[in-house]
Design a protein that fits this description.
Elements lengths: L6 E9 L3 E4 H5 L6 H8 L3 E4 L6 H16 L8 E5 L10 H8 L8 E5 L5 H14 L6 E8 L9 H4 L4 E10 L8 E10 L7 E3 L10 H5 L5 E3 L1 H22 L7 E6 L4 H11 L10 H4 L6 H11 L8 E8 L3 E8 L1
Parallel strand pairs: 4-5, 4-6, 11-12
Antiparallel strand pairs: 1-7, 1-8, 2-3, 6-7, 8-13, 9-10, 12-13
Helix pairs in contact: 3-4, 8-9
Bound molecules: oxa(dethia)-CoA.
Amino acid sequence: MAHEVTAAILGLGSFVPAKILSNSDFEKSLDTSDEWITSRTGIKRRHIAAPEQSTSDLCLPAAQAALADAGMNAETIDLILVCTLTPDYQMPSTACVLQHKLGLAGRGVASMDLNAACSGFLYGLATAKAYVETGMARNVLVVGVEILSRVLDYTDRSTCILFGDGAGAAVVGKHRPNDPKSHALREVKIFADGTDHQHIIIKAGGTVHPTTARTIDEKMHYVQVAGREVFRFAVTKMVEMIQGTVERHGLTIDQVGRIVPHQANYRILESACERLSIPPEKFVVNLEEYGNTSAASVPLALDEAYRGGQLEPGKKVILAAFGAGLTWASALIDW
Ligand code: UT7
């Protein structure tokens, strides 16, 4: 009889560029203040890629750290998934460039990008889990990465203050029950509803509005966000996903060690906490330092919590994200 395979996270890593943009830096060029940004979002700083750094450059150290954490060579990877909305190029995929930078070229390792915006890393985990559990791949490298600073209008105070750059990576392979470094991916659930696809959007550069002098003049190559609408959607989905995970698995809140949410806005997390009656300390929050790094946000926070000793063996970890699409996704991990 065939053995049932469960996928697991075997290693984690992350990387952020060195340059920091603080709230007070924005005060110099925009009609905004540290007080407004802090009280409305919780964000204080964000890391910004240097002009010569590309998305795949951010992937590489995060991927290498995840492989080192797993105690594995890059050669053991047979699928690379790069989850991003800010790829190196329109084509080829950033995953192919990363494969080359990892020294894996010539081996035919399948490599592809996946765009589910801020839910991207969780979409990547779901894909990796499916590949591993069906035997279509043995070890999958999943990277959530963004250089959002390249697609922001730094004269628009309502969007540019929200986002930052970074990368987080996981190695997903077959669960080894007796290995404390193997964290079973019990469940990954991914969702989308395209009705409100205009709510978070970069309008130009695709087939609807190919880049022209006009699209550039009209700043259509920058991120646009319907802030209030996304805020309401985010709170509803965070509550629904966390409550759903706890109920489906018959968990008490004590059995949940930490919840790692998408780091978009502290007030979204506060509202979700209140509605769920969950103590805010359960939530891993690092948006003060990085802002919203979209697909990088969950793996960056997960890796920081892991390396900071905040994830207790034997407890559950819940991941939850939402973003453009609109998309939303959650995961339950045995830590
Ligand atoms: O990963 C998903 C990506 N998207 C998000 O996470 C967005 C979720 N939404 C949010 O985080 C919040 O809606 C924002 C932080 C974007 C905005 O906060 P808000 O409390 O919803 O503010 P608002 O959009 O209702 O704007 C209130 C006022 C406006 O002025 P008026 O029209 O009332 O005069 C804005 O122009 O605040 C103004 N404003 C600012 N003022 C100072 C907007 N941005 C700024 C700013 N500094 N940076």
